[in-house]
User: Fold these one by one.
Assistant:
Number 1:
Amino acid sequence: MSRYSLDFRRKVVTAYELGFGSIRQLADQFMISPATVHSYIFRHRETQDITGCN
């Protein structure tokens, strides 16, 4: 399993926060799993930090 860059993770979270799509839509757009999108969003909401996400 590889880690995505911090910049990439921020883009995913920002897209969700700005309402550019649902978790599933963003997963398709960024070509990652919905579970990965969900983990980024959950981690950001809980800690305001996504540096430790996969």
Note: The chain has a mean pLDDT of 90.
Number 2:
Amino acid sequence: MPKPNSNFTKLLILTLLLFFIPRVVGLGADISNSDALRWHRRSQYFLEALKAGDLKSTYQHYQPGITLMWLNAVVKQAVFSYQLFTTGNPQTLENADFFPILHAISKLSLLGVLGILLVFQAVLIRQLFSDQTALVYVFLVAIEPYLVGIDRWFHLTSLETYLAFVTFLTLLYWTKVQKPKLIPISAGFFALSVLSKLTSLILTPLFLLIFINNYFRTKQVKPFFVFAGVSLATFIILFPAMWVSPVLVVQKLYDAIFNAVGSDVTITSDSLQNSFYLMTLLFKMSPFTLLVIVLCWLNGTKVKHGFYIFGYFLVYLVFLTLASKKIDRYVISLFPPLLLVAAISLANLSSNKGLLLKFAGVLFLVSVFITTKNVFSAYYSPVFGGTGSAIKLGIYDNSGEYFAPAALYLNDKGRDAYTCVPNNFDSFFPFYEGNAQMDCDGKTSFVVQSIDTTRPMFTGYGSCVLERSFGADVPVVAVYRCR
């Protein structure tokens, strides 16, 4: 284990500041992703079920999202208690003035957890590679635009991704030092990642391979059973519904894994079914990171533990590609191993070249901040034509981007206005002070419409005329004024 290094600690703190700054600026009023309001409500129901002793009802969703609900239940109880003490009149999610505040606090607490998990990753990468590689990895995570965007969501995706990669790195470090205490630690992180989203189970074959390879080297089988036992125990202990209805919960989880295969995104071309995630990855990865990875390949850079790192990437890519459910944000799972490879390559460059590339990466992040107006998840790489090309290819999806700015814009029109929002209603409604409708009728004053995979570019909306549009490189959300 490397000796304590004060310079490493100082540089890590500075790099973590770079991680947090773009993730907290304007937090709360930037975006309520399409599932955010649902997870706020699930967290509230989870808290109420806990307080009522109705443990069965703590199972709110198939994913199952337990880690997010535990975290947000604490936030909601703290905010409720504070409001009760100071005003005696706690506000609800339906209050458009209060929602951005609660939303910001909830997302800030989630970002705090992600920051802690990133520190764990940095420490482990330092043990496995070098100080420089660990610092560069955190730097790359900090400035990757789409990762910034998803980290700003109130959702499970980043939580699962960070937890799963900590699990992987801990197991990788264990194979190096053979310290028994690392097994229950990695098992605990794995259970937390599965409690976030069942997608983490995708990694089971890779983890099994790690234990098999270790068995051939050490002839030890005990670590595998410790990992399996601690993972299962942690899963049960932190999942209240498992205490009272284990059979029912297991049945629902089984159905979620094998039967919930609906298609959330309609691919416009059959040829994209197998290339959807690779195409999305190219569109969502910054040109800076892509350049570093290409340089790594061209220079023939040797990647230590490369078999497992590329295995991590391939396991996710293969399973996600085979699944019928295609959702663009799932591509985030592919980022950690790629960013680690890029970090290894960048750490091996000369200091001048490395500094120049890092400066270019920060400048690019600033440019994305300006062009997307702080809605980083709306980012599509300009190298491949940006949002316009993504729409033409059929891989674009609006997950709530720019509905918050549209709502804040329409709030100036008065509380008596009726606004119809046919899609992404839950991304608009929490910010809007007027009367929101899902179905348009004779009372409708405004219509808010978005483009996505199944909806074409704007050509007009009945007798309504375009008043304002929102987007990054092309408009993706439009506000129509109706006569």
Note: The chain has a mean pLDDT of 91.
Number 3:
Amino acid sequence: MSRNVLHLSTFLNATAKHGGYKRSLQLAEIAQADGIRTLCIPSGLYELLSVLFRSPLSAFAILPIAVTIGMRSLSLKGVAATILYGGWLHAQMRRHGWPRVMLEVSANQGVIMGNVLVSFNVRFSAYPHNIEFMVPGQNQSFFRSEGAAFAAEMLVYRAACRVHAISELDAAVLRAMNVELVQTLLYSPPKSEQSALYQIRKLRVTSDKTGILILGTAWNPPTRLGLEGLLDLIRECSSGQTFTLAGFGTEVLAPIAPSSVRVLGGVSDAMIRDLMVQAEALLVCQPPTSGMLTRLVEASFAGIPTYVLGGYFQARGMDNQGVHSISSLDELFKAMPEHLGAEEPARPA
């Protein structure tokens, strides 16, 4: 890859270390290995405005593009966002000599960035975190309708030099929609995360495991939908098993959680590590959707038996990595005794 390439990262500067952050970290490590500079897309209004004030040429250059894209697909909020993000992008492209771009595609600003790059006639590769039109409950507020958001997103994929999907499902969907240059770049924990996961695997060999762990970010619409359904299933069963639910935003689910579920909400990295060391198993309930659950891959690295309810397609084929698709909680309770007290085999480095 040419060194005159710029990686535009969506979540690398996120304060919450959710799955999007970890995917961004993985892509930043790949970029660094190729000598590519990573630039974080600003999340604050002040930074965007300050760039426009310092670069009036960029502010003027983006106005006709914002109007053109706006007439095609944007809400008024989206037009304003295009002026801000597009002006910032124009300034960065001028500053770095109009390089090729590794673009992380995310809802709203990520899709807009892709449309602006198309208008600039800049060559770019797309790295979608999700296929956004496949995510139920996604709030694409920068676009005037779901149809407009879909068309704008597809324009990005079809204009990209190549699309690097995060799962085989995502890649297959795009190919079915006549996006030809698609390949899969699966999620793997960044090197900076792997040592901690291997340490969890080592500690699990002698830990006193108790209870089933449920992890998820309730801010993500399909994840919250899955968690709510899982809590209903747990309420209906009488296994006597105990569960712990943790993750960003999960505290809002405490009022509907049955007594057998301890809801911790957002917790520190250290507490997540302790929970993973002590869990008998990890339980995931995710409706079929796009992307890839980073916690499935992390649990595999950490040697945690993982069970997935909800027909989540990406979990299929991971049986040899300790991830099993199940159709009911009864399957989980029947399978668990074979793991109790078992020593997880070492994963090769």
Note: The CA atoms of residues 15 and 110 lie 18 Å apart.
